[in-house]
Amino acid sequence: MELRINTTATEQEAQAIAKALASHFGDEVELYAETGDELLASASPEPGTGAGGSETGTSSEGTAAGNGGTDAAADDTLGPTEREETLQAEIDDILEGGPEKYRDRLSEQGKLFVRDRLDLWFGEDGLSFEDGKFANFDAWHPSGQDSDPDSDDRLPADGLITGAAEFEGRDLHFMANDFTVKAGSMAEKGVEKFLRMQQRALKTGRPVLYLMDSSGGRIDQQTGFFANREGIGKYYYNHSMLSGRVPQICVLYGPCIAGAAYTPMFADFTIMVRDVSAMAIASPRMVEMVTGEEIDLQDLGGPDVHARHSGSADLIAEDEEHARELVAKLIGYLPDNSDEDPPRTDGTAPKLSPEGIDAVVPDQPNRGYDMFDVIDRIVDEGSTLELRPEYGPEIITSFARIDGRPIGIVANQPNHRAGAIFPDAAEKAAEFIWTCDAYDIPLLYLCDTPGFMAGSQVEKDGILEQGKKMIYATSSATVPKQSVVVRKAYGAGIYAMSGPAYDPESVLGLPSGEIAIMGPEAAINAVYANKLAEIDDPEERKQKEQELREEYREDINVHRMASEVVIDEIVPPSSLREELEARFEFYETVEKDLPDKKHGTIL
């Protein structure tokens, strides 16, 4: 084999190159000058060496590098270079986060350092990769200089971590604020990472997890990210595009103020950690400056505010570990995206025997009871996850499973204000129905309501506005729907609870069921008030009222409804679970068409 090298190599270097090449190729090698016919060195292979007769070129002539070294690819003793060690040191520096003084304060606040939080969520091997570690690196760690670990100007990862991870066997995208870097505030490079993560989620069709702990936009660095086309405002555009496409789950570990507060609002599900998290359109200091009101952050936008009053928090976690547990359970009901089916599990028996259902439902329509006493006799044991339990508690919105199949439950709660539908309850139900429909989760309605609440205050609170949204969501949902008239179904309550007119796959009645414009007491007062007033004897009037009440209830009871084929079937309560299991199974592939239009105008 004849090869040519440049003439800068010394005689010793040329001989070493010839010997190495002969050993590598298993052939005799002659090295000539790059120009001319001068033989610089030659060598023959030692017995037992060589590359198996394979040559790298198409000709026996070629050009070698002449760098005076041996074949590095064949040398297994090489290790990291100084260049790589420098890079690793820089990465280690970034992983430390912001100044130590801020990391030390986290434990006093009951919070983990963000990278310890990621370890809690994903474990040592669950983090697939991170994007943008070096964001804004040159701003605080100039090349060739050491950064000051205690400087407030440290901006590791620009205070926001994004990447991909495996969580509970599911691949997902994530972002997490680093509160040790400018209080988790957002600036140009961090915003760009956030946007890229969202846009990639649109491509992959995988869920997004937001671990929020942010004081909002970095005001002193707002140029380049606030009003730009690809700035912080694009967050909410991307949230809107992702909405209903992939599940978006947000966990709040600290303050989320101003722009940061909209991410939990746009997410499908928001979990707040008690005592440490809050979200508000402005900080307490800003509120005082604008309105004169003095208020602390927890009273302004803490978990209790958003769980009970605004309805913006779906779940409250007691601590960081509990937050992870809640999300692990929540994601188990959800598909990766709107094209996939919700994940099935092995079914289990209910917590309580279905044979007790009829015994827990009182015959008297005005007597309260806990609807969970019915639910626990229908769904798989341990499968319920109620969302927004303190907001509009007259309606239960809960995920559960029947024989391993995820379902969404919308149920009236007679234990709270007789199960009457108030504006906040209607709003909660509408949003839950809409979310279930987006992710193809079948719906079970358990109806026991006197209808929508009446009165001047609920009118001011928007009972008509919120009521129409619930009815609209029920009307537009294309997932399989089963409606059960557990007891009373009065007024427009039967409409909101997916009654016969709302295209459910089935309307089932229990023997305690009644369907009517209004309850017996109100009906008798409306129709017979004058006639009853003409009866002077109190005992006679009382007896007449009882007769009218019984006649009215016979006219509206579930047997009359079944006889007139208003409902599909009266089901023995002890077999209700089996009936629902069979019907959800049968209708799982049902397809429903909506009118050809861009979208409705109600929600």
Automatic annotation (TrEMBL):
Tell me one GO biological process term: L-leucine catabolic process
Q: Where is the CoA carboxyltransferase N-terminal domain?
A: 80-346
**Stretches for region Disordered:** 36-79, 334-355
Annotated Gene Ontology cellular components are:
methylcrotonoyl-CoA carboxylase complex
Among Pfam families, the record links this protein to: Carboxyl_trans
Please list the residue ranges annotated as the CoA carboxyltransferase C-terminal domain. 356-596
Extent of Low complexity compositional bias:
56-79
Q: Name one GO molecular function term.
A: methylcrotonoyl-CoA carboxylase activity
Q: Which domain of life is it from?
A: Archaea
Q: Which PANTHER family match?
A: ACETYL, PROPIONYL, PYRUVATE, AND GLUTACONYL CARBOXYLASE-RELATED (PTHR22855), METHYLCROTONOYL-COA CARBOXYLASE BETA CHAIN, MITOCHONDRIAL (PTHR22855:SF13)
Question: What is the protein name given in its UniProt record?
Answer: Acyl-CoA carboxylase subunit beta
Name its species: Natronorubrum halalkaliphilum
